[in-house]
Amino acid sequence: MAKTIYIAGLGLIGASMALGIKRDHPDYEILGYNRSQASRDIALKEGMIDRATDDFASFAPLADIIILSLPIKQTITFIMELANLDLKEGVIISDAGSTKSAIVDAAEQYLTGKPVRFVGAHPMAGSHKTGAASADVNLFENAYYIFTPSSLTSPDALEEMKDLLSGLHARFIEIDAKEHDRVTSQISHFPHILASSLMEQTAVYAQEHEMARRFAAGGFRDMTRIAESEPGMWTSILLSNRETILDRIEDFKERLDEVGQAINKGDEEQIWNFFNQAREQRQAMEIHKRGGVDSSYDLYVDVPDEENVILRILELLRGTSLVNIHINEENREDIHGILQISFKNAQDLERAEHLITENTDYTVVIK
């Protein structure tokens, strides 16, 4: 039976979600809300949605499922608005917020007693690109799509959401909202604070030590990449998850003090253990498996500094979808660099490893 789906927010996430829904459910009608006309026009022109509006309340009563793909504050505001609208009985309301406790609490407060079902959710996928123009049907492929069930979530609602979103090819998982916020504060929110702090510190330091800008490469580049993230979104995330993030900051200060004391004392064994434990812990984590924010399958090729070497490798990989590619020179003075190629799935990674190994004598490593 065909359903009517209403997506509020036609940015990268909402528009990509619409494409994924249409892939498996071409008979579903998808309605879209967006404040700016540009994204509405793109979504209509590209066939992501069937009808669009800039009046959120106008389409809500028509929907069987409503997905709020909006900033956290606006999501909460629209939940309050939905509580006062004449919606279809049993309508499912869901969201795509990066923090969950505040949104789930708002739903419990304003929707309890209403003939609706609420499913908190967080698709852990993204890009440095924004807007409907950047929509990608494969954005969520193999990424975690997290559900945070509450008293307003029935088992059948979860199954309906999984069926609706089957075309996203995501990995569905359920977790408590508060635990979600604790986990993401450590592996997502706090790293953004670190990256931006390191960037700020280096910018100030480079005012007196200009070569710091020129030598910044390799590890520095990788550690600070996420400092280019959209500031409005991250301000909202931090303020909606304050207590947990402040706890992570205090914990990190203590760890910095410990290694600082070891350096001050010249404690070679403690410093060695500090680096060795970090290395072993990273190797033990599932950090290289697709399923988290901006994670991917990475392949490293030890390439000589020769003309057309990268073109040769890319020619071998013709027809394979790449997520990213860059050279890690690490400021080394030898003749080799490390070509890092990122893929969206294990199949493409394995295919690339086979093609490069069979057709070149370059060293290929999967981490």
Automatic annotation (TrEMBL):
<keyword id="KW-0057">Aromatic amino acid biosynthesis</keyword>
<dbReference type="Pfam" id="PF20463">
    <property type="entry name" value="PDH_C"/>
</dbReference>
<protein>
    <recommendedName>
        <fullName>Prephenate dehydrogenase</fullName>
        <ecNumber>1.3.1.12</ecNumber>
    </recommendedName>
</protein>
<dbReference type="GO" id="GO:0008977">
    <property type="term" value="F:prephenate dehydrogenase (NAD+) activity"/>
</dbReference>
<dbReference type="GO" id="GO:0006571">
    <property type="term" value="P:tyrosine biosynthetic process"/>
</dbReference>
<dbReference type="InterPro" id="IPR046825">
    <property type="entry name" value="PDH_C"/>
</dbReference>
<dbReference type="InterPro" id="IPR036291">
    <property type="entry name" value="NAD(P)-bd_dom_sf"/>
</dbReference>
<dbReference type="InterPro" id="IPR046826">
    <property type="entry name" value="PDH_N"/>
</dbReference>
<feature type="domain" description="Prephenate/arogenate dehydrogenase">
    <location>
        <begin position="3"/>
        <end position="293"/>
    </location>
</feature>
<keyword id="KW-0560">Oxidoreductase</keyword>
<keyword id="KW-0827">Tyrosine biosynthesis</keyword>
<keyword id="KW-0028">Amino-acid biosynthesis</keyword>
<dbReference type="GO" id="GO:0004665">
    <property type="term" value="F:prephenate dehydrogenase (NADP+) activity"/>
</dbReference>
<comment type="pathway">
    <text>Amino-acid biosynthesis; L-tyrosine biosynthesis; (4-hydroxyphenyl)pyruvate from prephenate (NAD(+) route): step 1/1.</text>
</comment>
<dbReference type="GO" id="GO:0070403">
    <property type="term" value="F:NAD+ binding"/>
</dbReference>
<keyword id="KW-0520">NAD</keyword>
<dbReference type="InterPro" id="IPR050812">
    <property type="entry name" value="Preph/Arog_dehydrog"/>
</dbReference>
<dbReference type="InterPro" id="IPR003099">
    <property type="entry name" value="Prephen_DH"/>
</dbReference>
<comment type="similarity">
    <text>Belongs to the prephenate/arogenate dehydrogenase family.</text>
</comment>
<dbReference type="Pfam" id="PF02153">
    <property type="entry name" value="PDH_N"/>
</dbReference>
<dbReference type="InterPro" id="IPR008927">
    <property type="entry name" value="6-PGluconate_DH-like_C_sf"/>
</dbReference>
